[in-house]
Amino acid sequence: MYISNEGLLVILFVGLVAGWLAGKVVRGTGFGIIGDIVVGIAGALVASFLFPKLGIRLGTGLVSEIVYSAIGAVILLLVVRLVRGGGRL
C-alpha cells in the first residue's frame, strides 16, 4: 500500500481537526497536537468499523470525513472515560 505525501497530509489534517473537536466536546480541552491527531485517527478507525454496521452513511468529501472521524473520536473518548473514570461521563 502506498500513500502519497498529499494523502498523508490529508489524513493528518483530518485527524488533527477531528481530535481537537472531540477533545472540546468530551473534555473541554485538547491533548496537544500529537494527541489530537492520534485521537482523531483512532476515532476514524472506530467510526469506519462501527458506522457501516449500523447502516450510517454521511456522504463524501473532506468535511464529512472530519465529522465522521470526530464522532468516532467522541465515542472513543467516552468509552475511555467510562473505563478509566469509574463509570462517570
From TrEMBL:
<dbReference type="GO" id="GO:0005886">
    <property type="term" value="C:plasma membrane"/>
</dbReference>
<feature type="transmembrane region" description="Helical">
    <location>
        <begin position="30"/>
        <end position="51"/>
    </location>
</feature>
<feature type="transmembrane region" description="Helical">
    <location>
        <begin position="66"/>
        <end position="83"/>
    </location>
</feature>
<protein>
    <submittedName>
        <fullName>GlsB/YeaQ/YmgE family stress response membrane protein</fullName>
    </submittedName>
</protein>
<dbReference type="InterPro" id="IPR007341">
    <property type="entry name" value="Transgly_assoc"/>
</dbReference>
<keyword id="KW-1003">Cell membrane</keyword>
<feature type="transmembrane region" description="Helical">
    <location>
        <begin position="6"/>
        <end position="23"/>
    </location>
</feature>
<dbReference type="Pfam" id="PF04226">
    <property type="entry name" value="Transgly_assoc"/>
</dbReference>
<keyword id="KW-0812">Transmembrane</keyword>
<keyword id="KW-0472">Membrane</keyword>
<comment type="similarity">
    <text>Belongs to the UPF0410 family.</text>
</comment>
<keyword id="KW-1133">Transmembrane helix</keyword>
